[in-house]
Amino acid sequence: MKRKELEVPRLKLLTDKKDRRAEAVGTLRPAEARRVAWRFGKAEVKKDEDVEKLHAALQRLKKQNKELTADNFELKRVQDQMKRDIQQLLGKRRGDGLNETKEDLNQTHDITSEQLTHSICEQWHSLKKHLQRLESQVATQPIRGENGNHVIRVTDHEKEIVMLKQEIAASRRLIVMQQQVMQEQLQTAQNSRPPSQLKGYYFLEEQRRLQEDRGMLEQQKRTLQMERWNFTEAAIRLGYEAIHGFRETEKLRWTKESSQILQRVRNAAFPPGVPQLSLVHVLDLEKSGYIKPHIDSVKFCGSTIAGLCLLSSSVMRLVSEENQEDWADLLLERRCLYILRGTARYKFTHQILRDEDSFFNGQKVSRDRRISVICRNLPDSTDSAQGLLPGLKWSEN
């Protein structure tokens, strides 16, 4: 736009030069005028064409100037409308962020279209930031009334009212449904009520069924009691007679690392193909606890007993049943594996000494809480005849 405005004076200057040249030609003598006309004839024709082109360009520039003026007027009208809308929207709550917008809106109306568009974009971004800041302030600050009490927003209050109405409607439907079910049950009970002369008969029938059920229950209890006696005879004998100060359990499932360790114990203690008990016996013996001399029952475990000693070292004593003077003390160090089979399994009792009695080769063995993990194989009818097998084996794990 500025470039075109600068071209207008240049065109006027060229027009003035042409007029001066025409006046100069008029003052020459006829012969000189003819020579000048002959010399500059073609140049004049060319200059006339240039002047016509310049006039056409000037007309185009004027037309473009009018269009730009109209666009500028339209943009200024939109800007004024936006200014009024912003003032009505924000009112007194506009802050420092809108002062810059107001200064931008009061700029001169002679700015170009590009500058005006850039100014409008900056104003709009400033307005958006200001609105976002106001929304964040409203969201973070609780609404309070004149006396400082908390005020519930209208939208939240309406939502709570709608939710309460829905819950009330659902409760009413549930109450109506329950009333209908109760009425149906009452009607069914009234319709199925036996005649008055048969009330005693129904009572006797129910009493007879109750007696039959009690008889079946007592029979099952006796059966279960017999099973308990058969399968826990060794546990009762071991727990209540031989062991003092202990806790025990039988575990089937182990972690991956523990299963690998138990598999190493089984591979070391039992030959391949020997059926083993799937449950592993875990015995937790407290510091003051001890195990009296005993031989594990052949009804519930086979010819081999493998135990893993954990947490604390201890002293195991083996005593022959035939000759009490034939005995041996074994030092079961922490993390060691001991295996009882053959003669040591059937002909010798084994026990864990008390803490105050735990001596090995004249040295005191301090004992603390002790946990033993015991693996057994299934009982066999020939186990009682294996008293001549090698007696005892132990190793470090």
Automatic annotation (TrEMBL):
SUPFAM superfamilies named among the record's database cross-references: Clavaminate synthase-like
Keyword line: Coiled coil
GO BP annotations, alphabetical order: DNA damage response; fatty acid metabolic process
Origin superkingdom: Eukaryota
Cofactor: Fe(2+)
The keyword Coiled coil belongs to this UniProt entry's keyword annotation: yes
Residue span(s) of domain Alpha-ketoglutarate-dependent dioxygenase AlkB-like: 228-376
Ranges in a coiled coil: 51-78
Chain segments annotated as transmembrane: none
Entry keyword Mitochondrion: no
A cellular component term, taken from the record's GO annotations: mitochondrial matrix
The protein's name: Afadin- and alpha-actinin-binding protein-like isoform X2
Native source species: Geotrypetes seraphini
Organism lineage: Eukaryota, Metazoa, Chordata, Craniata, Vertebrata
